[in-house]
Amino acid sequence: MLVADERAKAEAMLKKIQSGEKLESKEEITNEYREHLLTLMIAQADSELAGAYGYIPWIEGAPTVAEKLAMANIVKDECRHAKAMYDLLERLDIDTDKLIYEDKMKHRMKVFYEPIKTWPDLVMFNFLMDRAAGHQLRDAAECSWGPWSRTMVQIEKEEWMHVKHGETWVRKLSQESGEKPAVQKALDFWFPKVNKVFGKSGTDTNKVYQKFKLKQRDNHDVRLAWYNEMKPLLESYGLTVPGIDVVE
Ligand SMILES: [Fe+2]
Ligand SMILES: [Fe+2]
């Protein structure tokens, strides 16, 4: 394509983004937009899958049969979220088998390598991490790439159901005698790790994401929304919440 054509395409694309219209076809996006879109969608796809893998042992580890079913349902939701994300990536001509089986080490967030050792650990991870995903998906649901934005609407609803599950259990365990120290220990363990999943604040890449409306806010603003929501909740259960860090 001629340079002038490329420039005209980029201008038309930006105009559409700025007017709030969704982009729908591969033909109307620039290579730069595509690369940024892929980075974000691959990160989400892998996190959905890694999330499912982390929860699988807790079908067996859950304390009651009703809880085994609840965990199995969360695993099913996360697998469905992963499938929806990999389908979107295939429509952008990505070899998703390669992503899943060869490149996973490149994309997996560190938090998914941490072992979930106990039930209080599991419910705190569920409380913090699904809530982090819920806040991040809010931005994706409003993004300029139409297919991703529409897919996020249902996924986001399910993430908030997962959050409620974590919340119910963290409250229950905090208020049961003897379990509160284990819940506090789990909070102290997971908090700094989940705080990092929002990424660095104020970077140039983040500004490009916002210019393309692939993200609507700076990473730190999303982190703050997450923190300001969960802090009063955890404190109402009698837990001590660590201070928030800006990740630079
Ligand atoms: Fe999910
Ligand atoms: Fe989830």
Topology, pairings included?
Blueprint: H1 3-18, H2 31-55, H3 57-61, H4 65-90, H5 96-101, H6 104-107, H7 119-141, H8 146-175, H9 180-196, H10 204-211, H11 219-236
Helix pairs in contact: 2-4, 4-8, 7-8, 7-9, 7-11, 8-9
The structure holds fe (ii) ion (2 copies).
Structural class by SSE content:
mainly alpha
- Report the sheet with the most strands, covering strand number, pairing sense and barrel closure: none
Q: What's the gyration radius in Å?
A: 19 Å
Task: List the bound ligands.
Answer: fe (ii) ion
Task: Describe the structure concisely for a colleague.
The protein has helices at 3-18, 31-55, 57-61, 65-90, 96-101, 104-107, 119-141, 146-175, 180-196, 204-211, 219-236.
